[in-house]
C-alpha cells in the first residue's frame, strides 16, 4: 500500500518532534503555524496514526507510534539528502583531459596538494603537467 506523503511533511514532522512545539517549529522553518498544523494533521490522516500527544500548554510530545515513525523518517530524510547530493555530483562531474603549466620553483611544494584535492573531486579527469 503506497502512502502519499511529501518530503516537506516529513521535514515538518521532524522539526515539530525536535522542538515539541508547532509554533516554534514554524518559526524555525519560516512558515506559518497553521501550515505546520495542517501539514501534521494531513500526515497523521495519511498514515493512519496519531504521531503526537497534544498538551494543554500548546506543546506536543511524540506518541509511541510517533517515536518509531521519527526514527524511520530520520533515516529516510538522510538518505534523501544523500541521493540529492549524488544527483548534483553526477550532474557536475567532469571527465576528459587537462594540461596544466606550472612554474618550476613552486611545483614541488604546491603541486602535490593541489593535485590530490583535484583528483579527489574529479577522478575522471586525466591531468598532465608541463613545467615552465
Q: What is the CATH T-level topology of the largest domain?
A: Arc Repressor Mutant, subunit A
Q: Fraction of residues in helices? A: 55-70%
Put simply, the count of helices is 5
**How does the overall form come out from the CA principal axes?**
elongated
Give me the CATH architecture of the largest domain, please: Orthogonal Bundle
Order of helices and strands: HHHEEHEHE
Return residue spans where pLDDT drops below 50 for at least 5 consecutive residues.
none
The name of the CATH superfamily of the largest domain reads Winged helix-like DNA-binding domain superfamily/Winged helix DNA-binding domain
Query: What amount of the residues lies in strands?
Result: 15-25%
List how many beta strands DSSP finds.
4
Count of spatially separate domains: 2
Query: CA-to-CA gap between the ends?
Result: 66 Å
Q: Strand order, biggest sheet?
A: 1-2
Nearest-integer average pLDDT: 86
Largest sheet features? 2 strands, antiparallel
For this structure, what is the CATH class of the largest domain? Mainly Alpha
Structure class = alpha+beta
Rg (C-alpha, Å): 24 Å
Task: Give a topology summary.
Layout: H1 7-19, H2 22-29, H3 33-47, E1 52-54, E2 60-62, H4 64-92, E3 96-102, H5 107-121, E4 125-131
Task: Please characterize this protein's 3D structure.
With 132 residues, the chain is an alpha+beta fold. The chain has two domains: 7-90, Arc Repressor Mutant, subunit A (Orthogonal Bundle); 94-131, Periplasmic binding protein-like II (D-Maltodextrin-Binding Protein, domain 2, 3-Layer(aba) Sandwich). The chain has helices at 7-19, 22-29, 33-47, 64-92, 107-121; strands at 52-54, 60-62, 96-102, 125-131. The strands form two sheets. Strands 1-2 form a two-stranded antiparallel sheet. Helix 5 (107-121) links the parallel strand 3 (96-102) and strand 4. The chain starts with 6 loop residues before the first helix and ends with a strand. The model has no long low-confidence stretch (mean pLDDT 86).
Amino acid at each position: 500500500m503506497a502512502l502519499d506523503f511529501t518530503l516537506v511533511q516529513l521535514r515538518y514532522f521532524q522539526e515539530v518532534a525536535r522542538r515539541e512545539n508547532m509554533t516554534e517549529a514554524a518559526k524555525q522553518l519560516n512558515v506559518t503555524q497553521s501550515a505546520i498544523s495542517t501539514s501534521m494533521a494531513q500526515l497523521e490522516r495519511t498514515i493512519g496514526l496519531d504521531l503526537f500527544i497534544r498538551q494543554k500548554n500548546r506543546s506536543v510530545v511524540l506518541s509511541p507510534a510517533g517515536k518509531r515513525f521519527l526514527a524511520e523518517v530520520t533515516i529516510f530524510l538522510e538518505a534523501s539528502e544523500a541521493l540529492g547530493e549524488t544527483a548534483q555530483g553526477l550532474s557536475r562531474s567532469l571527465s576528459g583531459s587537462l594540461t596544466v603549466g606550472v612554474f618550476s620553483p613552486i611545483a614541488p611544494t604546491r603541486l602535490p596538494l593541489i593535485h590530490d584535492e583535484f583528483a579527489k573531486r574529479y577522478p575522471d579527469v586525466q591531468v598532465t603537467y608541463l613545467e615552465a
